[in-house]
């Protein structure tokens, strides 16, 4: 008998403790210790009874932690079973499906939460609950998602091959080195195995070292990387079993890198890795259905039509090849709501273009993402009719080269109506779509609906990893002149009628740089007002700061692409004789104000809009100022136009705030120009956008040295009172 005292110093303060015991005759006992008192444990006081040994004393729940030289190799346990698992991502462990299957000999698991409480524990870490299982078809492998990420352990990545005829090492928690009297082993053990035969999904050795229970799922390492996981063993000579020979079988994972990456890196609501090639299927075989790894909600497997075949040996392997004439992959219903926020992503290798993703309505598609003439494009229809009006974003020429893999993605924000097209992580095009409707038909890959019974735009090429989100999966980096939230700085003007207009940047060049056709009226009655554009509230959308005739400064916030007059905020008084401007020199997200006092000629700096500091004592009367980073050092400098039309650059030499160095001249002849400073080209350099007296709009590209490159015309026939 043992007596164990809990750690509680008073009632209700102790921790959960369990004791496990075993007698020589094999009888076992598990006792819950009173957290706040003493508990006798043992198998009785009978002098004729077998001696009792305390095998383990544990506090808390879950698996006991193990020890060993491989921190990424842990124990995977559920009711009545313990196996081995390998950390392959901070929140994912790879093991054997047979460890968790109702019938281990068939290793069949469903995608979803485990049937019972399941935990994984790694050396030096506490046990972590498993909340999701993702098995590939036809293979004794499963990915187990952990309820919390494992920190401080480097995951093991998949190998690129699984060789035979060479010695490989398997590491796990085996009972091979223990006796029948021992209940478990918490120390990692290694088995050196030379596999003699391989299939596309397995490695086998007709005879091998002693591999016992607990090693299911153990990583087979090749060059320190994961080539396979142990699946079956004869177990002859293992404790507690008669065994049946010494053969060993492992499930290969060297060809599952695409599938593992797609599952372990996704944040999507739906993910189709397009990598679940059935175990007995060869390349070129017709695709039947592909699984959806939907971690929440209901999965939407895609069913293929004729012309969709499996492809291997490419960058993404396996992948699905579509023939460009008949092949599509379709779900049983919609993956996103097309009148709400959503995002899409696909890896695609076009051969001759066509539609990668769409979602059916009755007579047309709600959206389509496609390649055409070497360019990626995305469009949303305005109504569910055959031949609808499309709002289309077109990426630059050459963005979709034939025979090259690209990750093409879309984010759509319903509140602003802005759809952004991303290629390989870059924001390459955008479009406004404000006439919304909900397409409730099937998500489709490889074509789009063109009528009630017809499809068109069949994609010819190879696809991998398709994903959808019912939210924005990415947001563009904030810009202080980005009015519509598409990641590009826009041009704002007041016209002769006093209306305030936003001209969205299209990311193009020349006369296609800004869009007059898609301009948006954002205010009226602004003709006599002095105003500037800046992201005052640091929300990623450009606001307008206006000076009234009484010298009061008002900030008009931008809400989803529209100025909200009712929410305007007073941000200054006494600015009647000042020229005001805004930039960011203080290192905080909020904008700073700059002001020229035309009465005394001084230049002032107002960090975050307050706390006036003099940065130019005199001589600034009548200057127009443009605070921005003109030399690429991430500090707001000052570009200024004096009363003679000379353009001057004042570098900011302060690390936090504003200290202006001696000026250098950057140009002449600017008196007749209306000017704004912003990065219109999207290259990270501040440009000058200027309107001349003939109504021509020009951009002067920044060169990050306080000077500008050769100008290019981006507009003609502009009648403008002010520009910002």
UniProtKB/TrEMBL annotation:
Recorded hits in Pfam families, A to Z, give: FG-GAP_3, Trypsin
**Residue span of region Disordered:** 1-50
Composition bias, Basic and acidic residues: 1-13
Q: Name one GO biological process term.
A: proteolysis
Q: Which residues cross the membrane?
A: none
User: Peptidase S1 domain spans which residues?
Assistant: 57-265
SMART domains to which the protein is assigned, alphabetical: LamGL (SM00560)
**Residue ranges of coiled coil:** none
Which keywords accompany this UniProt record?
Answer: Disulfide bond, Signal
What would be an example GO MF term here?
serine-type endopeptidase activity
What highest taxon heads this organism's lineage? Answer: Bacteria
Q: What is this protein called?
A: Secreted esterase
Native organism taxonomy = Bacteria, Bacillati, Actinomycetota, Actinomycetes, Streptosporangiales
